[in-house]
């Protein structure tokens, strides 16, 4: 069992926890016997949800009835105490008892508590929040998604290296192709930080990824670029816009197909294609934002996802550890 990926799980964060979290672990364990789950939270509630569906060789429970609430401010959550399920799970990574930590709890609190417990990777000034986005050809890594509102050119260069390392960890057989999110593709477009970053990356040859200059918002999903870099303000706006657009398309499609008899007949005739389309836009498949730049990886599951989404984020944890993400960043930086 020593070769298992050890995942520290905050079982008390997010909606409908710990049931959703434990159901996600059970679902994940059915298809993946490579993970060991160190679960932090209310032991009685966790055991009730587990219901002997996983043998003891694959998990342990560390009891605490203290939790970080969704309404807590990041500073308030840090002050709440060092015995909350979120703090203890992060601390287990700090102590090298586990390889990676995941929580569906309060995002701001997770970032602050992680930064209080974990050191930065040498030569990196700021950590970044990254996530997977679907595109026409597969998946893209996008960062920063809100951890840093203002960034220097050095920060954006660091994000490029970290994003490329993350992509290579998740998809070892593919080459990272990096671009900076901008308002145009010409060199003269954008603010001074973006233009300065472009010059640095264009002049500095990097064997770890291909630098392809700028990418505009309308090109994010075409698949030509698989690592997209921006400051946290721009990245967060892009993320929320993409999520809102996907939700709008799926809801309007449902209305159109259920609105009249022609729509209903059409949906029956195209049921296979519609199911493929629905699955492609299913946010549960892309659940799991990654907080990178610290010397241990921290994964944030969406608080509102269901057990399938949480299970998928556990798969992301497995790939990050097996892909040696931290070592790749340290080497590439």
Structure description:
This protein is α/β, with parallel strands linked by helices and 333 residues long. The protein has two domains: 1-119 and 294-325, Isopropylmalate Dehydrogenase; 124-286, Isopropylmalate Dehydrogenase (3-Layer(aba) Sandwich), CATH 3.40.718. It has helices at 19-31, 43-50, 74-79, 85-94, 107-117, 153-170, 192-203, 232-258, 261-269, 271-280, 307-322, 325-332, and strands spanning 5-10, 35-41, 59-63, 100-103, 128-134, 139-143, 177-181, 210-215, 227-229, 289-292, 298-300. The protein has an eleven-stranded mixed beta sheet with strand order 3-2-1-4-11-10-5-6-9-7-8, with helices on both faces. Helix 1 crosses helix 11 (307-322), helix 4 (85-94) runs parallel beside helix 5 and helix 6 (153-170) packs across helix 12.
Keywords:
11-stranded mixed sheet; Isopropylmalate Dehydrogenase; 2 domains; alpha/beta; 12 helices; 44% helix; 333 residues
């Amino acid at each position: 069992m020593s070769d298992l990926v050890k995942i520290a799980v905050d079982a008390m964060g997010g909606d409908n926890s710990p049931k959703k979290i434990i159901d996600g672990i059970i679902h994940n364990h059915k298809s993946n016997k490579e993970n060991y789950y160190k679960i932090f939270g209310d032991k009685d509630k966790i055991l009730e949800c587990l219901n002997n569906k996983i043998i003891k060789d694959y998990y342990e429970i560390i009891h605490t009835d203290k939790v970080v609430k969704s309404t807590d401010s990041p500073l308030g959550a840090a002050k709440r105490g060092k015995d909350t399920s979120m703090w203890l799970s992060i601390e287990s990574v700090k102590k090298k008892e586990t390889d990676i930590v995941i929580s569906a709890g309060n995002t701001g609190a997770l970032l602050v508590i992680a930064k209080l417990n974990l050191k930065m990777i040498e030569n990196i000034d700021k950590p970044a929040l990254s996530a997977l986005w679907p595109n026409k050809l597969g998946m893209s890594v996008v960062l920063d998604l809100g951890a840093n509102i203002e960034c220097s050119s050095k920060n954006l260069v660091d994000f490029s290296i970290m994003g490329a390392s993350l992509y290579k960890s998740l998809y070892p057989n593919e080459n990272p192709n990096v671009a900076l999110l901008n308002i145009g593709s010409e060199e003269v477009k954008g603010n001074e930080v973006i233009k300065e970053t472009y010059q640095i990356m264009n002049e500095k040859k990097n064997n770890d990824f291909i630098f392809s200059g700028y990418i505009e918002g309308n090109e994010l999903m075409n698949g030509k670029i698989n690592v997209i870099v921006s400051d946290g303000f721009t990245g967060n706006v892009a993320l929320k816009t993409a999520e809102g657009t996907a939700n709008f398309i799926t809801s309007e499609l449902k209305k159109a197909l259920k609105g009249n008899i022609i729509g209903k007949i059409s949906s029956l005739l195209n049921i296979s294609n519609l199911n493929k389309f629905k699955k492609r836009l299913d946010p549960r498949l892309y659940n799991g934002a990654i907080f990178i730049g610290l010397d241990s990886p921290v994964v944030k599951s969406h608080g509102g996802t269901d057990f399938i989404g949480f299970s998928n984020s556990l798969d992301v944890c497995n790939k990050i550890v097996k892909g040696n993400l931290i070592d790749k960043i340290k080497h590439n930086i």
